[in-house]
Fold:
Amino acid sequence: MTIIASNPVWLPHRYDPQHDAIHFRHTPRSAHGSATFLTDEYLGEAKPSIVARSAARAQAGSPAPLRFIVHSAFCCSTLLARAFDAPGLAMGLKEPVILNDLIGWQLRGGDGGQIASVLDDSLALLARPFAPGEAVVIKPSNLCNAMAPLMLQLRPDARALLLYAPLPVFLGSVARKGMDGRLWVRELLVKQLKQGLLGFGFSGEDYLGQTDLQVAAMGWLAQHALFARMAAQFGDRVATLDSELLLAQPGPAMTALCRFFGVPLDTQAIVSGPIFTRHSKFGQAFTSDDRTAERSAEALHADEIAKVAIWAEAVANAAGVPMELPRALQA
Structure:
């Protein structure tokens, strides 16, 4: 038990609320590097080692500094998490499922105090460094965004990057994903409604009457409004970044992010290496020309995207949600 709970090669993978236990799976650093996300789909099946939560927390050891990449989807968050896989300096954790488990528990009506206690312990276990002196950079799934303020409250020394794609870019990403993208935004909206993130004056019936891209825009606005509230609440502990700026000026953006996170990466090597020149999810060579070609698939939806973007901006103005977030990451 001691070896598992104190050793970072054992990933705290799942939480079982019925037995108040953590399911650990053996996940060496190399597996983190090759997996797109820390899910069984990418890591492969493995038999877990199950440890009582209280025992696991007691053996967690000293935590590394925690940093978060909180994102609204389709905005290069996986790319950034990969950039912080830097032995001796940092480790990037890409969408650990244990955090999704807590969101699922919350959506099923779990007790808020119990969830906060388990989240505190989960963060302590995720913060075990692979090597002395490393920071741990966690990129939760965007389904966990409603829990991001609590994460920062539980870790007063943590910092978070709030990363987003501009609304038209986000809508284009949804449109070119076809049915899968359109189903995903509706599923996201259902969860956001349960989490109380949709304070725009629409009823459930109103959302049913909206097009898929209007629903996508509402999900984006809900996250944008959350990010604006976090910027006001946490001040200089958070910074915001537009993914288009990251792609247009990767060197200055990465330099600023490393300064904000306190992690001295070799940013020039990163932006000229495979992190920025290969597809973050599929691994093949991926240039700016490839990105332009990928986005050409959005042309069929250009009229709808433009109209929905105008409509969403009007909704945002009425609700007092800034389309450009404060606390922009400074180069």
